[in-house]
Amino acid sequence: MNAVRRRLPFSSYSDAYALPSIIKCETNLYLAQFAFMKLLPAKYIIEKALARGNLTHGMKVIETSSGTFALGLAVVCREHGFQLEIFTDPVMDKDLENRLSALGTEVFMVTEKAKRGGYQRSRLDALHARMRQLGHSCFWPRQYETPDNPAAYKLFADQISGMLNADVTLVGSVGSGGSTCGTIERLRQKAPGARLIGVDTFNSVIFGQQDGERKLRGLGNSLVPKNVKHELYDEVHLISAPLAFAATRTLHERHAVFAGPTSGASYIVGRWRARQYPEEAVVVICPDEGHRYVEAVYDHKRLEQNECLNEGVLLDGPATENHPSTALPPWNRYLWKRKSRETVLNALEQASS
C-alpha cells in the first residue's frame, strides 16, 4: 500500500487505462483485463503521428470502426484537441454512439453493404470519398494496416514478460490482428518458443471460412487485414456466439471478471489450454469490460429471444478439424503451425483435387 500511496497521479485517462490489469484465475491461467484494449493502439498511433509531423493541429482524424477503436480515438482526440469523424454501420450499439458523440466525435452511419466485403468495404468506400473532400487536412490512422497498431502492444508484451516471463502461451481474439501479432512478436524476441493461439468466429474470412453473418462481434472480419500475420499463429480456434456468451457469463460467475463476449471466447480456449498443458503459463487477452453487453450477453430473456442462449454446460474441449474452412460450430480447433494463409488454403485445394 505504501507503493500505491507514493505513486504519482496519471496525467490523463489514456495514461491510466491504456494497459490492462493481469489477474491470476487458476494455477497457470492469467487474464489480461483491459478497460478497452483499442485505447492502447489509438493512443500510440496518434502520438506517433504527432511526433512524425503526419498529424498537425487543425487537421481532422477520420477512421472506419464499429467498436472500441472508435472510442479509443475519441478519447485520445479529445485529450489532444482534434476533431474526429468515424464511419460505421448499424452494428455499432447506441450506447457507444452516444459516448462518441459526447466526446465530440461526428459519427457517419453507412447503411448499405457492399456485395463483396460487406459493411467494412462500404465503410472504407465512404471514408475514401471523405478523404478526397478533405485533401491534406485529414489524417487516417489505418488501424487494419498501419505497423503502429501491432507496435503499440510492445508495452503490453513487456508487462507480461516483466510479471510472468516471456515464454507464455498467449490466447487472444483476432480482428485487426494488432494485439495478438504485435504482442507475440515482442515476446518471441525474448522467448522464440512462446506460443500464440488465435480465436476467431465462424463466417469470418481471416482464417479461411466463407464470409457470412456473425452474431459474435469484436472479432472476425469480412476482409483479411494486413496486420494479421498468419505465420505467427500456432493454433486457431473458432467459437460460436452462444458458446462465447455462455463462457462470458461463466467468467463473471466464477472469477467476478465482468467482460465482453470476445473475452469469453478467449477465456474458454485459454482455460482448456491451461488444463491440457499445466506446465505452460497461459495468458488470455480480455479486450474490454462488460458494460456495453449487459443486454446482449447477460440478459437471459433477450438471449432466448435471439436464440443465443446456450442451455447446457460449457463444452470441455473443441473438435479438431482437418481444415478451418470446413469447421462447424460450436467450437473447432485447427493446428495452424505458423503457416501462411495461402499455404493452408492451398492444402485444401490439393486434398480435394
The largest β sheet comes out as: 8 strands, mixed
For the biggest β-sheet, the strand order reads 1-2-10-7-8-9-12-11
Q: How many beta strands in the DSSP annotation?
A: 12
Fraction of residues in H or I helices: 40-55%
Mean pLDDT: 92
Morphology:
globular
Short overview:
The chain has 14 helices and twelve strands. With 353 residues, the chain is of the alpha/beta class.
Describe the model.
The protein is α/β, with parallel strands linked by helices. It folds into two domains: 2-37 and 148-345, Rossmann fold, CATH 3.40.50; 39-139, Rossmann fold (3-Layer(aba) Sandwich). It is 41% helix and 16% strand. The strands form two sheets. It has an eight-stranded mixed sheet with strand order 1-2-10-7-8-9-12-11. A four-stranded parallel sheet has the order 5-4-3-6. It is globular. Mean pLDDT is 92; it is low at 1-5.
Any descriptors?
353 residues; alpha/beta; Rossmann fold; eight-stranded mixed beta sheet; four-stranded parallel beta sheet; 12 strands; 41% helix; globular; disordered N terminus
Please outline the helices and strands.
Blueprint: H1 2-6, H2 13-17, E1 21-26, E2 29-33, H3 39-52, E3 60-64, H4 68-80, E4 83-88, H5 94-102, E5 106-109, H6 118-134, E6 138-139, H7 148-151, H8 154-164, E7 169-173, H9 178-190, E8 195-201, E9 235-239, H10 241-255, H11 261-276, E10 282-286, H12 294-298, H13 300-305, E11 319-320, E12 331-334, H14 341-352
Parallel strand pairs: 2-10, 3-4, 3-6, 4-5, 7-8, 7-10, 8-9, 11-12
Antiparallel strand pairs: 1-2, 9-12
Helix pairs in contact: 3-4, 8-9, 10-11
